[in-house]
Amino acid sequence: MSNPKSYVTKKAARKAAKMTVKHAAHGTASKVKRRPIRSVTLIGVGAFLGGAVSFVIARGATARRLKAEQAAVDAAAVAADQERAAARHERRRVELDDRTLTDRVKSEIFRPADSPKGDVVVDSENGVVNLRGSVPSAELRDRLVTDAGAVDGVQHVEDLLHVRS
Predict the structure, then answer these.
(1) pTM exceeds 0.85 for this model
(2) Which residues are bridge partners to 125 per DSSP?
(3) Cα(5)–Cα(3) distance, rounded to whole angstroms?
């Protein structure tokens, strides 16, 4: 048999080699003591990260707020434009209706050959037709007023016609 001392020495050497390989595999082969992270360092890193996250969130919120404000301004401008266009359209519609009504009345009362086209002026406003001018007889005046009142859309006829003597 061999020397017991050498056997123990060899066994210790094998164990040390095995442990070195084991520590090398796990990355703990160095004998440097690790220092624990101090709480002051943790607080500092936490404060920094919290500030950075807060900055990013606030910046995003500001951008979203600015976009929302711009969208509100754009929506208000569009609504104002639509309102102005609707008012313009309403004015045009009333004018066109009055013009159309005037044209229809003229077409109706000036259809007969004996009607005084150059002596009678026709205009209308909000469904009220005004007949102005002079006619040769009272019968012609009554016929013009009656024919004007028979047109669709005429609410009232103002007879401002004079009979020539």
Answers:
(1) no
(2) 128
(3) 5
